[in-house]
Amino acid sequence: MKKKKLGKGYDTLFELYDDTEETTDNKNTENSESGVIMLRTSSVEPDRKQPRTKFDEDAIEQLAQSLQQHGMLQPILVRKSGESYKIVAGERRWRAAMKAGIKEVPAIVKELDDLQAAQIALIENLQRESLDPVEEAAGYKRLSEEFSMTQEQIAEKVSKPRSVVANSLRLLELPESVQKMLSSGDISVGHAKVLAGVADKEKCAALAQRAKEEKLTVRALEAMLAAEGKETKKPQAKGFVSKDPYVSELEIAMKKLTGAAVKVRQQKGGAQRLEIEFKSMEELKSFASRLAVSTEVE
Q: Could you tell me the pTM of the whole model?
Protein backbone atom coordinates (compact mmCIF):
# COMPACT_ATOMS: atom_id res chain seq x y z
CA MET A 1 0.00 0.00 0.00
CA LYS A 2 1.59 3.22 -1.15
CA LYS A 3 2.04 5.98 1.40
CA LYS A 4 2.11 9.67 0.66
CA LYS A 5 5.28 11.72 0.89
CA LEU A 6 5.81 12.79 4.48
CA GLY A 7 8.41 15.51 4.10
CA LYS A 8 12.15 15.89 4.51
CA GLY A 9 13.68 13.57 7.08
CA TYR A 10 10.67 11.33 7.60
CA ASP A 11 11.39 8.89 4.78
CA THR A 12 14.86 8.35 6.26
CA LEU A 13 13.42 7.77 9.71
CA PHE A 14 10.65 5.42 8.77
CA GLU A 15 12.53 3.32 6.23
CA LEU A 16 14.56 1.95 9.16
CA TYR A 17 11.43 0.34 10.57
CA ASP A 18 9.17 -0.39 7.60
CA ASP A 19 8.61 -3.88 8.96
CA THR A 20 7.04 -2.60 12.21
CA GLU A 21 3.29 -2.83 12.56
CA GLU A 22 1.09 0.25 12.73
CA THR A 23 -1.51 0.27 15.47
CA THR A 24 -4.96 1.80 15.16
CA ASP A 25 -7.46 3.04 17.65
CA ASN A 26 -11.20 2.82 16.94
CA LYS A 27 -11.66 6.25 18.50
CA ASN A 28 -9.34 7.86 15.94
CA THR A 29 -9.84 8.63 12.27
CA GLU A 30 -7.41 6.68 10.05
CA ASN A 31 -6.28 7.56 6.56
CA SER A 32 -5.54 4.05 5.30
CA GLU A 33 -3.72 5.28 2.21
CA SER A 34 -1.11 7.32 4.05
CA GLY A 35 -0.82 5.52 7.39
CA VAL A 36 -1.58 8.84 9.08
CA ILE A 37 -4.30 8.96 11.74
CA MET A 38 -5.77 11.86 13.67
CA LEU A 39 -5.12 11.71 17.42
CA ARG A 40 -6.59 13.84 20.14
CA THR A 41 -3.83 16.26 21.11
CA SER A 42 -4.60 15.61 24.77
CA SER A 43 -3.99 11.87 24.33
CA VAL A 44 -0.37 12.47 23.34
CA GLU A 45 2.47 13.03 25.80
CA PRO A 46 6.23 13.74 25.49
CA ASP A 47 8.90 11.14 26.09
CA ARG A 48 10.91 12.47 29.05
CA LYS A 49 13.99 10.57 27.83
CA GLN A 50 14.16 12.27 24.46
CA PRO A 51 17.42 14.11 23.59
CA ARG A 52 15.99 17.62 23.48
CA THR A 53 15.51 19.11 26.95
CA LYS A 54 14.96 22.79 26.13
CA PHE A 55 12.52 24.46 23.76
CA ASP A 56 12.57 28.01 22.40
CA GLU A 57 9.22 29.42 23.53
CA ASP A 58 9.32 32.23 20.96
CA ALA A 59 9.84 29.68 18.19
CA ILE A 60 6.99 27.56 19.59
CA GLU A 61 4.71 30.61 19.56
CA GLN A 62 5.59 31.38 15.94
CA LEU A 63 4.96 27.78 14.95
CA ALA A 64 1.62 27.82 16.80
CA GLN A 65 0.53 30.83 14.75
CA SER A 66 1.59 29.04 11.58
CA LEU A 67 -0.38 25.91 12.56
CA GLN A 68 -3.50 27.99 13.16
CA GLN A 69 -3.15 29.41 9.66
CA HIS A 70 -1.97 26.44 7.63
CA GLY A 71 -2.45 23.37 9.79
CA MET A 72 0.22 20.76 10.59
CA LEU A 73 2.01 19.79 7.39
CA GLN A 74 4.02 16.90 8.84
CA PRO A 75 2.62 14.23 11.17
CA ILE A 76 4.23 13.42 14.47
CA LEU A 77 5.54 9.92 15.16
CA VAL A 78 4.21 8.20 18.30
CA ARG A 79 4.05 4.82 19.97
CA LYS A 80 1.35 3.39 22.21
CA SER A 81 1.89 3.88 25.95
CA GLY A 82 -0.98 2.48 28.01
CA GLU A 83 -4.12 4.45 27.16
CA SER A 84 -2.15 7.32 25.63
CA TYR A 85 0.58 7.84 23.04
CA LYS A 86 4.20 8.77 23.65
CA ILE A 87 5.96 11.07 21.19
CA VAL A 88 8.94 9.62 19.36
CA ALA A 89 9.49 12.51 16.93
CA GLY A 90 7.71 15.85 16.65
CA GLU A 91 7.40 17.16 20.21
CA ARG A 92 8.03 20.73 19.05
CA ARG A 93 5.06 20.54 16.66
CA TRP A 94 2.89 18.94 19.35
CA ARG A 95 3.74 21.71 21.82
CA ALA A 96 2.83 24.32 19.20
CA ALA A 97 -0.48 22.52 18.53
CA MET A 98 -1.27 22.55 22.25
CA LYS A 99 -0.48 26.27 22.43
CA ALA A 100 -2.65 26.94 19.37
CA GLY A 101 -5.58 25.07 20.92
CA ILE A 102 -5.66 22.48 18.12
CA LYS A 103 -7.77 19.50 19.24
CA GLU A 104 -6.38 16.83 16.89
CA VAL A 105 -2.97 16.24 15.31
CA PRO A 106 -1.94 13.97 12.42
CA ALA A 107 0.23 11.13 13.61
CA ILE A 108 1.83 7.87 12.56
CA VAL A 109 1.70 5.16 15.20
CA LYS A 110 4.52 2.63 15.24
CA GLU A 111 5.27 -0.42 17.37
CA LEU A 112 8.77 0.51 18.59
CA ASP A 113 10.90 -0.72 21.46
CA ASP A 114 12.97 1.64 23.60
CA LEU A 115 16.07 1.31 21.41
CA GLN A 116 14.20 2.04 18.18
CA ALA A 117 12.35 4.98 19.74
CA ALA A 118 15.56 6.46 21.16
CA GLN A 119 17.35 6.08 17.85
CA ILE A 120 14.56 7.72 15.86
CA ALA A 121 14.18 10.58 18.36
CA LEU A 122 17.89 11.33 18.24
CA ILE A 123 18.14 11.00 14.46
CA GLU A 124 15.11 13.25 13.95
CA ASN A 125 16.57 15.94 16.18
CA LEU A 126 20.02 15.68 14.61
CA GLN A 127 18.59 15.91 11.12
CA ARG A 128 16.94 19.17 12.12
CA GLU A 129 20.22 20.34 13.75
CA SER A 130 18.16 21.65 16.65
CA LEU A 131 20.02 20.21 19.63
CA ASP A 132 22.55 22.26 21.54
CA PRO A 133 26.01 20.60 21.79
CA VAL A 134 25.47 19.25 25.31
CA GLU A 135 22.06 17.76 24.42
CA GLU A 136 23.62 16.15 21.36
CA ALA A 137 26.42 14.64 23.47
CA ALA A 138 23.90 13.41 26.06
CA GLY A 139 21.95 11.70 23.29
CA TYR A 140 25.06 9.87 22.10
CA LYS A 141 25.88 8.90 25.68
CA ARG A 142 22.44 7.45 26.18
CA LEU A 143 22.72 5.32 23.05
CA SER A 144 26.13 4.15 24.25
CA GLU A 145 25.32 3.39 27.88
CA GLU A 146 21.67 2.34 27.84
CA PHE A 147 21.69 0.50 24.54
CA SER A 148 25.33 -0.69 24.35
CA MET A 149 25.99 0.91 20.97
CA THR A 150 29.57 1.51 19.90
CA GLN A 151 30.69 4.88 18.60
CA GLU A 152 30.90 3.35 15.12
CA GLN A 153 27.28 2.16 15.32
CA ILE A 154 26.10 5.54 16.59
CA ALA A 155 27.99 7.35 13.85
CA GLU A 156 26.40 5.11 11.22
CA LYS A 157 22.88 5.78 12.55
CA VAL A 158 23.27 9.56 12.57
CA SER A 159 25.31 9.63 9.34
CA LYS A 160 28.29 11.39 10.87
CA PRO A 161 32.00 10.47 11.16
CA ARG A 162 32.94 8.53 14.29
CA SER A 163 35.34 11.35 15.23
CA VAL A 164 32.36 13.73 15.48
CA VAL A 165 30.64 11.39 17.94
CA ALA A 166 33.85 10.90 19.95
CA ASN A 167 34.55 14.64 20.17
CA SER A 168 30.96 15.29 21.15
CA LEU A 169 31.12 12.78 24.02
CA ARG A 170 34.28 14.50 25.33
CA LEU A 171 32.20 17.60 26.02
CA LEU A 172 30.43 15.72 28.83
CA GLU A 173 33.78 15.51 30.68
CA LEU A 174 33.79 19.29 31.09
CA PRO A 175 32.77 20.76 34.46
CA GLU A 176 29.01 21.33 34.76
CA SER A 177 29.48 25.10 34.83
CA VAL A 178 31.35 24.96 31.51
CA GLN A 179 28.66 22.73 29.99
CA LYS A 180 26.05 25.32 30.96
CA MET A 181 28.08 28.07 29.28
CA LEU A 182 28.27 25.93 26.17
CA SER A 183 24.53 25.23 26.16
CA SER A 184 23.69 28.91 26.60
CA GLY A 185 26.08 29.97 23.84
CA ASP A 186 28.45 31.89 26.14
CA ILE A 187 31.29 29.82 24.69
CA SER A 188 31.44 27.93 21.39
CA VAL A 189 32.05 24.28 20.62
CA GLY A 190 35.52 25.33 19.49
CA HIS A 191 36.24 26.80 22.94
CA ALA A 192 34.83 23.66 24.58
CA LYS A 193 37.07 21.35 22.54
CA VAL A 194 40.13 23.33 23.65
CA LEU A 195 38.98 23.30 27.28
CA ALA A 196 38.32 19.55 27.16
CA GLY A 197 42.09 19.09 27.10
CA VAL A 198 42.52 20.85 30.47
CA ALA A 199 42.67 18.16 33.18
CA ASP A 200 42.34 20.54 36.14
CA LYS A 201 38.57 21.12 36.47
CA GLU A 202 38.91 24.36 38.45
CA LYS A 203 41.36 25.76 35.94
CA CYS A 204 39.09 24.65 33.10
CA ALA A 205 36.11 26.48 34.62
CA ALA A 206 38.20 29.61 35.25
CA LEU A 207 39.45 29.64 31.65
CA ALA A 208 35.91 29.23 30.35
CA GLN A 209 34.75 32.16 32.47
CA ARG A 210 37.62 34.25 31.19
CA ALA A 211 36.84 33.30 27.59
CA LYS A 212 33.24 34.38 28.18
CA GLU A 213 34.03 37.67 29.92
CA GLU A 214 36.87 38.73 27.62
CA LYS A 215 35.16 37.36 24.50
CA LEU A 216 38.29 35.41 23.62
CA THR A 217 38.48 33.75 20.23
CA VAL A 218 39.28 30.04 20.04
CA ARG A 219 42.74 30.91 18.70
CA ALA A 220 43.35 33.30 21.59
CA LEU A 221 42.36 30.61 24.10
CA GLU A 222 44.67 28.09 22.42
CA ALA A 223 47.53 30.61 22.47
CA MET A 224 46.91 31.29 26.17
CA LEU A 225 47.11 27.59 27.03
CA ALA A 226 50.19 27.13 24.87
CA ALA A 227 51.94 30.01 26.62
CA GLU A 228 51.10 28.57 30.04
CA GLY A 229 52.41 25.19 28.93
CA LYS A 230 55.76 26.65 27.92
CA GLU A 231 56.10 28.38 31.29
CA THR A 232 55.34 25.30 33.35
CA LYS A 233 56.95 22.59 31.24
CA LYS A 234 60.37 21.54 32.41
CA PRO A 235 62.76 21.10 29.47
CA GLN A 236 64.36 17.69 29.07
CA ALA A 237 67.60 17.21 27.19
CA LYS A 238 67.05 15.68 23.78
CA GLY A 239 67.89 11.99 23.56
CA PHE A 240 67.51 11.35 27.29
CA VAL A 241 64.92 9.39 29.21
CA SER A 242 63.82 9.78 32.84
CA LYS A 243 66.19 8.28 35.41
CA ASP A 244 65.42 5.42 37.76
CA PRO A 245 65.42 5.78 41.61
CA TYR A 246 68.95 4.39 41.98
CA VAL A 247 70.40 7.10 39.76
CA SER A 248 68.53 9.76 41.74
CA GLU A 249 70.03 8.48 44.97
CA LEU A 250 73.48 8.40 43.34
CA GLU A 251 73.15 12.07 42.37
CA ILE A 252 72.41 13.01 45.98
CA ALA A 253 75.41 11.05 47.28
CA MET A 254 77.75 12.62 44.74
CA LYS A 255 76.49 16.14 45.52
CA LYS A 256 77.47 15.58 49.14
CA LEU A 257 80.86 14.20 48.10
CA THR A 258 81.80 16.94 45.63
CA GLY A 259 79.92 19.89 47.06
CA ALA A 260 78.81 20.71 43.52
CA ALA A 261 75.67 20.30 41.44
CA VAL A 262 75.68 16.80 39.95
CA LYS A 263 73.46 15.37 37.22
CA VAL A 264 73.52 11.83 35.88
CA ARG A 265 71.92 11.71 32.43
CA GLN A 266 70.46 8.41 31.29
CA GLN A 267 70.69 8.10 27.54
CA LYS A 268 68.67 5.81 25.35
CA GLY A 269 70.37 2.45 25.07
CA GLY A 270 71.53 2.45 28.70
CA ALA A 271 74.59 4.76 28.47
CA GLN A 272 75.12 7.20 31.34
CA ARG A 273 76.63 10.68 31.35
CA LEU A 274 77.86 12.43 34.48
CA GLU A 275 77.62 16.24 34.63
CA ILE A 276 79.20 18.24 37.47
CA GLU A 277 78.61 21.97 37.60
CA PHE A 278 81.14 24.18 39.47
CA LYS A 279 80.09 27.72 40.29
CA SER A 280 83.67 29.01 40.36
CA MET A 281 87.24 28.10 39.50
CA GLU A 282 87.91 27.67 43.20
CA GLU A 283 85.25 24.93 43.42
CA LEU A 284 86.80 23.17 40.44
CA LYS A 285 90.33 23.37 41.90
CA SER A 286 89.08 22.10 45.26
CA PHE A 287 87.44 19.14 43.61
CA ALA A 288 90.51 18.43 41.49
CA SER A 289 92.70 18.52 44.62
CA ARG A 290 90.46 16.01 46.43
CA LEU A 291 90.43 13.83 43.37
CA ALA A 292 94.22 13.90 43.10
CA VAL A 293 94.64 13.03 46.79
CA SER A 294 92.21 10.17 46.41
CA THR A 295 94.17 8.86 43.40
CA GLU A 296 97.53 9.07 45.24
CA VAL A 297 96.15 7.14 48.22
CA GLU A 298 94.99 4.35 45.92
A: 0.55
Q: Which of 91, 124, 251, 277 is catalytic?
A: 91
- Render pLDDT for 224-266 as a digit per residue (tens, 0 to 9): 888 887 654 444 444 444 455 556 666 776 776 776 777 777 6
| 52: amino acid identity, one letter | R
Q: Strand 104-109 relative to strand 36-40: parallel, antiparallel, unpaired? A: antiparallel
Instruction: Answer yes or no: 104 catalytic.
Output: no
Q: Which residues of 193-226 are buried (b: 16+ CB within 10 A; e: fewer)?
A: bbbbebeeeeebbebbeebbeeebebeebbebbe
As a whole number of angstroms, the distance between CA 244 and CA 234 comes to: 18
CB atoms within 10 A of CB 103: 9
- What domains are there in the chain, each with its CATH number? 10-119 (3.90.1530.10), 174-218 (no CATH), 245-297 (no CATH)
